[in-house]
Amino acid sequence: MRMWRYLATIIMGLSFAGSALLAQARNQVSYDWGPDQLAATFMYTVDDYSLQVTPTNLERTHLGGGSVEYASRHFYPWEIVGAVQYSSGQLLGQKLLSASGGAGYCRSFKHWTPYARVLGGMARTSSNDQMYLYTVPKWGLALNTSVGADYQLTPRWGIRGVQFENEYLPFGLRGSVYWSIGTGITYHFRP
Q1: For 106-129, how does the pLDDT look when each residue is reduced to its tens digit (9 = 90+)?
Q2: Cα–Cα nearest to 102, from 141, 140, 149
Q3: Which of 1, 6, 27, 104 is the most buried (most CB within 10 A)?
Q4: How many CB atoms are closer than 10 A to CB 142?
């Protein structure tokens, strides 16, 4: 029993000493400053909800719309992002509105800036034909993940080369997933 206590004391002492030495050697964390960015993106969205049009044919809901997002890059390469998105489409006259906020990571390489983001927020869906068996528009929590790449044309203007998005919504029996692809323009707020 004494042997175990002795070994435990030695291991704990070495762990504390190693932590103290590592803390002394660690560099101070510093962030670069990147200009904030405003982006307007056209989005084409496919819903996982399928409508049986004929006895042998299922057809997915297709939505078209846009999103506006603001990315604060004061902790570059990390960014704080807020976004609003609106889409509408057929088969059932569905409308989807979402507002979300979260964090992302981006890195600039010459003119290209690839990014990845995770956002959470609220979404509202409605349709002409009770798409999810709701008789009134329905609100719910939304989780949005996206990746893409922006291309800088001038110091202020750029294009959003491509953006892929996966949005999970709590509608339906087991939730719904919306897949989107988009392109658009970007504007950098430079001093």
Answers
A1: 998 888 999 999 999 998 887 665
A2: 141
A3: 104
A4: 24
Secondary structure of the chain as H, E, C letters: CHHHHHHHHHHHHHHHHHHHHHHHHCCCCCCECCCEEEEEEEEEEEEEEEEEEECCEEEEEEEEEEEEEEEEEEEECEEEEEEEEEEEEECCCEEEEEEEEEEEEECCECCEEEEEEEEEEEEEEECCCCCCCCCCCEEEEEEEEEEEEEEECCCCEEEEEEEEEEEEECCCCCCEEEEEEEEEEEEEECC
Interior CA angle at 129 toward 41 and 93, to 5°?
Answer: 25
Q: Is residue 121 part of a domain?
A: yes
Rg (CA), the chain: 24
pTM, full prediction: 0.72
pLDDT in the model for residue 46: 82
Residue 146 reports pLDDT greater than 60: yes
Averaged pLDDT for residues 129-138: 61
Instruction: Look at residue 24 in the predicted model and tell me its pLDDT.
Output: 54
Identify the CATH number of the domain in which residue 41 sits.
Answer: 2.40.160.20
22 occurs within a structural domain: no
Residues sharing a CB contact under 8 Å with residue 17, sequence separation 6 or more, in sequence order: none
Structural domain for 75, as ranges? 36-189
